[in-house]
Amino acid sequence: MFNKLKPGESEEDVLRMAAEFNAERQKNPNFQPAATVVRVEKPVGKSLFAQKRELNKLNNKSSLSDVKPNTEQQNFREATVDAGKQKVLLDEIHENMLGDIRGTKINHNLIENVLGEIVERKEGGIRPPIEFQQPKQESGKSLFARKIMAKESAGNTNSPPKAPAIDNPSETTAGHSAIVQDPKLTQEIHSENLNLLNQMREEDILAEQQKLLNSLDPALIKLLAQKREQQKNRLATPKTPKVELIEPQALPTSSNEALSEDNPAHQLIQQSDEGNWLNFNLIEEHKLAWMRDIPSKMGQLKPGEQFNARFDWKGVLLPHNTEEMPQNVDERELYLHGEEPDRPGYSLQELFRLARSTVLQQRISAFGSIAGILSIYNQGFYDQVLSLPVSKIFFLLRFGLDDNAPAQLEVVSRALARLFYNETDEVVLDHIYENAYCHWQPTLQLLVDNDESGDSTSFAFLQRYMALLRTNSKAFNADVEEETDTRLSMDDFQLAETDLMSCLLRTNILQRICFILRSVKPENSTVESCIKMLIRIARTNVQTAKQVVEEHDLINVILTNFLPQITPASATSTLFYGQPQYMALKLIRVLICQHLDIAKQLATETFIENLKHFLFYRDDIKGKLIRVQIEVLRIVRCLLLLGVLDRDLFKQLLPALRQMLDWHYNHCVFDVGGPALIRQHAAALLVAIVASGESGVCDIEAQKLLLEPLHNCCCSWTHRATRANALKDYTQLTLLSAVLYAVGWFARHGYLGATSFRQFLHNILPDFVRSAGFIACVQQLTRGSIILRRFSDRRNSHAPLPNVGAVLMHDLGPQLVVSDTYPVQLLSNLWAFVETPLEDAQKQLLQALMQPAVLEPLGEYLKELSQHLNRFLASNFFARSELKLVHQLLSTDGIETYLTNTQLLQLVYSYLCCLSTAQARQMKSIFERYIFSDKYVQLDKKSLELLQTSCMEIVYTHFIADNKEPNLTLCYTQAPVLPSDWPYFQLRLILNNYLQNVQQHPAVIYSENQVVRMTLTFVEQLEQQGLQIVSPLEKLMYLMISFMGPDSQFLDPELHQLLHGQLLQFYAQNATHTFNFEATHEDKGNFEPLYYLFVNHFEAASYGDELFSSLVLLPLAQKYDNKWRRRIWSEHVQAMRFLNCDESLLIGGLAAYLEPVEQEPSLVQLYGDALQQKLVRPGSIAHKIARHHFNDSTAIKKTTSF
């Protein structure tokens, strides 16, 4: 006996019980289960006639078996039943067969509308058309009646001969029905009815008739009586309609004019035999409305008016007006019956509804359209056009990924990959990877300020202080505890709006992808989409990369199925499973770059053997295998730079590297006509060899083996570039950049030195620099520059899911950040020969580079940078190489001859504001060359030492931060170290000192006098060169901070004189300027809380200083909001007793504080109270202002004047 399943038992228990049942059944074949599920097929639907006919057959058989033959009874019935009664009974039987014998409610109007007039006809006769009594209106005729009238009007000569009229319609009822079209079936039914009647007596017939009448609905009996009366009337009336026989013939072409082409059924009538259609006596316009053509005139949008976005099946946004669509687009399948039926396409709400349909094809179509929308969105074409609910789309797609249907998995995985895996970013990253120092990979985590430094001189610490100076000035405690991570307490929707990648990981996406790849084993595109999602997850940060690596089942599935060794069968196969895939290798490379520990964990012996096998494979190299080898070379480069591959493993790769160099020397085509993939493969080979030298594993034996073919390849490719008029493909520039990178490194650091490349350095390279192709490259520098463009990128187009920013938003549409002729990497590697020149080749190369054709475009480029350097785009990940080139140019002796001192300082200042932690060395070099040089900045010795010390402290802290982790990754946004107002950095220390004194913290080490003097002098010299470092309001705030030192050293005569000159100069420059005191500046506080701190400090330590007083009075001018005057004259009226200054120190003069006369009653009353209570000194500026407004104002009634 078997037990039932109990709660808590799993699938394993079900399988165990099934095995026990099967074993018992094999022992005893008669053993049966207690219950069996039987699938009952749905019966086939039968017509009313077929059901009645089967019922009659059953009744006929039963009656024949029960009733004995009785000749006398048959003769009696034949004698008593006449022909008229027999006809009546037959008609009633016929009507009963069409009616409801059980007596259910029947609407006789419905029967008349469905069946129409029932007319019997003879066997083989022609059924006359039914005449309907309808109003004689042209609009009421049917479509087919209009067609017939059009044929009759074509001419009587073509009309067919008329058939003779039917004189006796009653003859058509002799056993034939107009409802049953089959003559044999009609005769069979008629015979069955006659046999049934012949076998019954008259009393039985009457009894059955009465029984039938009692069982029927009275309404049905009335309906039958009416039909019988109508038949009698037609028999009594001699006039009968004449029916013409219409022979089938081809409709004349002129008959098409009966219906206009815009009629909904025009096309349907042309393609069908309309004569076989029944009861088309009326045109039901409301039922045909969905077939109508689109209105030619739709509502026009007003400028700036928004409308609901609609997309086609490819995700393309359709215009609001169909006139804007291309003429060759067939959009008929895109029209719906719902909202906006005149517009083609599907809205997002409708696509969401289709994506939840029970029909698989509808779900696939909806998900495919959403995938197209996301692809176009990530390319930037929908920016500033529509706003997509990305979080809601994500949840829809993630739910769709849980369906195991292969077709749905394919389209949903593709949509998810297009959402997370930015194809444009990845293509550009792979495009530039073979350039020098471009092996760094971006991390795409959300930027959160987690700087917990307690250093009071650090920017992060000072910015926290400045951030407290907002409109709420009640507390100024900068020691704010870091907020705990609240993501664990967020629900899924909140997390998706904050960090979409964390929300994706919360949905167990790694386990789901592992199940799909291991168990479902879908088609190729699904596998590719899953790997793309894994690449994007791995790029986020080192924590998510470790999560991927810790999924051992997932990594084993990828290594086993997508990175096996190549076999002859797999080399020609088109399937993903069982052959190496370059996307899987790219995933491994991204994981390796995240951290050294991950690289060691993945670089197993089996994996290294597979890499060696891929590099040595030469049987059948095609595009797919070339991509595999490119990724293998990139992985080898990363492992070498991280120190994972030792010298012994590299020696095992040497024969493959030497063989590839020889192959490229003979087969690589440098010209544009050659395959670009081969040139990219050659560049990857060169930079991998350079990485072996940088890591120290390429010893002298290896260099002897590789440098000779390397020199031959470099000479060959550079010579071909010299003969070309222009370099039109980016792979050409990349290959030349790799050549210069390899030659430069081995010539300086190789065991054989520059002698291995003597011919290249003395002849080939100088000739290339003089060639027309290289001159064209230099001239493309300004045009293709990233940091000179005047628009932004798409890094934070959707804040919860950042991207690298490979797309720039231009007014004319999206553009790639790197163009095909972007020459920066080539020029940077070439300028490295000038930066650290080689003794043998220095003269020839310098002569070639110093020609005017090269230096003049570079000088124009630097001039443009001094005026239009885009600091936002300078933080783009792809702008790092260009910033390196700018540093090389600024470090070149003699470049200042092409720039004036003003242009040079403007360029240096803007350049320093763009450098990130990764460029800490460049920052230090520029500071020492320009900022700390007497040639450009004249400061006294103490001020110069203070400036140098403070700047170097900033740089050295980032030297440490730049080398803290053993990885090959950088943040996707290269945030600058120095803010735009970095020359005022030391004044922030004074404010910091003031706030910490409030909180009883010790003072800073620098003297207040030194800080103020150095800062104001340095800024003044920069401003004299035409630099505008801060806005007028920001400069006003810094001038106020200069008076807030703890020691009140502004009273020192020398410093006071300096401040006096600075204020007079500031007032003169902004005499007509109107300050916006409500403005908020990044990393700074608002003006309002700082001003009230300034007033409090004036009350405590101003000593009535006139410079201090003039700054307090500045917001009290009449052109500004009276809230400043109300608060000062009410809460700080005691400060007005000590406030006084010369009228020359008032910005705009005294008139700016007197006119127009104050009309605020409360403020005028405050003026009167201060005068009456003698809170202001007579003759002071405050007394003049209060007396003028109180005496001249008409806002209040006054009993006295002052």
From TrEMBL:
**What is the name listed in the Swiss-Prot or TrEMBL entry for this protein?**
RNA polymerase II-associated protein 1
Q: Region (Disordered) spans which residues?
A: 152-174
Protein family according to the UniProt entry: Belongs to the RPAP1 family.
User: What InterPro entries does the entry give?
Assistant: ARM-type_fold, RPAP1/Rba50, RPAP1_C, RPAP1_N, TPR_RPAP1/MINIYO-like
Which superkingdom is the protein from? Eukaryota
- RPAP1 C-terminal domain: residues covered: 308-376
Compartment(s): Nucleus
Q: Which UniProt keywords apply?
A: Nucleus, Transcription
GO BP of this protein? transcription by RNA polymerase II
> Which residues belong to any copy of the RPAP1 N-terminal domain?
187-231
Q: Where is the RPAP1/MINIYO-like TPR repeats domain?
A: 983-1199
Organism this protein belongs to? Drosophila albomicans (Fruit fly)
